[in-house]
Design a protein that fits this description.
Blueprint: E1 2-6, H1 9-31, E2 34-38, H2 45-53, E3 62-66, E4 68-70, H3 81-90, E5 99-101, H4 109-120, E6 127-130, E7 153-157, H5 160-168, E8 181-185, H6 187-191, E9 195-200, H7 206-213, E10 232-237, H8 246-249, E11 253-254
Parallel strand pairs: 1-10, 1-11, 2-3, 2-6, 3-5, 6-9, 9-10
Antiparallel strand pairs: 4-8, 7-8
């Protein structure tokens, strides 16, 4: 685990994007292609923006998956993660990606999980972009998360804290309009990734950062499992890192 702390979300995103681009260039040079997972949400705004600026990445050799999607909302909905990625990355990046595998939340959840699982098993993931929620969730694996399930994708129930965050970030008109379920990549599938870039900005994530980076690994703090990953780089802004104890900060790169 490497931990880097920046003065604001913009600087955090730039650094995370540059590191991810470096990993991608090396992977494509060595393998001839790369498989990636993209995350969504406010934590990824600056990261994806930086990726659009990066040069000399053979995106036409990259296959993209994403972490999660709500059940029952169309791509036209402002909160759709498919819409988020199409608008901010997939339809913007040049050259176009080799292949895009999106989660279709309008289909039967179990059947869609089966379809996605069969595809991702043929595409070992080289790089994953992740963040985590105010409740410490990783993808939509809310606490208590299942660390042991083998399936690559699963239908999950969203807890109140998770749904409140989605409403609070302005994606939905009311708390009642936030879906109760989603399709999420499983913890085990995320942990199979060769490299992980974890970006977490904002004061509202500070408690989760403290619990997931300083506390014991626990399914009550799902993103704490990333402490076990051999190649996970954490990128935080000062606000998100504000509750970390001195013992953790002493090991961090503070920019």
């Amino acid at each position: 685990m490497t931990l880097s702390i920046f003065k604001n979300a913009e600087e955090m995103g730039k650094a995370a994007g540059k590191k991810a681009a470096q990993i991608l260039r090396i992977t494509i040079q060595e393998k001839g292609s790369a498989n990636i997972i993209l995350a969504t949400g406010a934590s990824q705004f600056e990261v994806l923006k930086q990726m659009l600026y990066e040069k000399d990445i053979a995106w036409d050799k990259v296959t993209m998956f994403h972490l999660d999607e709500y059940l029952g909302i169309p791509t036209s909905h402002p909160a759709s993660f498919r819409k988020y990625l199409l608008d901010r990355f997939i339809n913007v990046i040049t050259p176009k990606l080799k292949e895009v595998i999106l989660i279709d939340g309008e289909k039967d959840g179990k059947e869609e999980c089966k379809r996605l699982g069969e595809i991702i098993e043929k595409h070992p993931i080289d790089l994953a972009f992740v963040g985590f929620g105010e409740n410490g969730h990783l993808a939509f694996n809310d606490p208590p998360a299942d660390f042991d399930i083998e399936e690559p994708y699963l239908v999950v129930n969203l807890d109140h804290a998770c749904r409140q965050q989605q409403f609070g970030e302005g994606w939905f008109e009311s708390l009642d309009s936030v879906p109760m379920q989603a399709i999420s990549m499983s913890i085990k599938q995320i942990m199979k990734t060769k490299h992980i870039i974890c970006s977490v900005p904002d004061t509202r994530k500070a408690e989760a950062v403290k619990n997931c980076l300083n506390g014991e690994i626990s399914n009550l703090h799902p993103a704490s499992i990333l402490q076990k990953h051999p190649n996970c780089g954490y990128f935080l802004d000062q606000n998100a890192a504000s509750l970390l104890p001195k013992s953790v900060l002493e090991k961090a790169i503070i920019v």
